[in-house]
Design goal:
single chain, 173 residues, alpha/beta, 5-stranded parallel β-sheet, 5 strands, 47% helix
Length: 173
């Protein structure tokens, strides 16, 4: 079973606690990164960054770990969590979408809106944490391109089929 790092803001507190209970009942280890009680004045970035960092730290140590964020505004959680180097946060509204994000981009943080129906939310979380990355050379190459750009600002080492002027993509820091 996986370790699931859970973070919630005020808009996702109730659903987050319900999903924590379901994950523990399914045998997953849950690490809570949200407030201990509902706080209408809390701010989502703290929880998103805590969860993203914990997932990356665990995965770097070889732990089968994922993040789950349940926020009032899911897209805000995606943006904040993706500021953590190595976090690949996505939203998904269905189990199929969750499985696809795992297979295509090796997503490691799932962000849901707090208004999601609990049953569908649980099925989506379950699909996310149980879908393995396929052993597909093209997908692996694409993920490495994203990571290279995230870490070095280029994708030069993986775009050999392009002309040099097409691959000299460099971000301005």
């Amino acid at each position: 079973m996986a370790r699931i790092h859970v973070g919630v803001d005020h808009g996702g507190y109730e659903l987050g606690r319900a999903l924590q209970t379901r994950a523990e009942a399914a045998g997953h280890e849950v690490v809570w990164h949200g407030a201990e009680s509902l706080d209408p004045g809390d701010d989502y970035p703290l929880f998103a960054i805590r969860v993203g960092a914990a997932v990356v730290t665990d995965q770097d140590a070889g732990v089968d770990a994922f993040g789950l964020l349940v926020f009032d505004e899911a897209s805000a959680g995606v943006v904040a969590a993706n500021k953590v180097n190595g976090a690949r946060a996505v939203t998904a509204a269905s189990p199929r979408a969750a499985a696809t994000t795992r297979e295509v981009v090796d997503a490691n943080v799932l962000v849901l809106e707090g208004i999601a129906y609990e049953e569908n939310a649980w099925l989506t979380v379950s699909a996310f944490v149980t879908t393995a990355l396929p052993h597909d050379v093209a997908r692996g190459r694409q993920i490495l391109q994203i990571e290279e750009y995230e870490n070095a600002g280029t994708i030069e080492g993986w775009a050999v089929q392009l002309e040099p002027e097409q691959i000299a993509v460099r971000r301005e820091d």
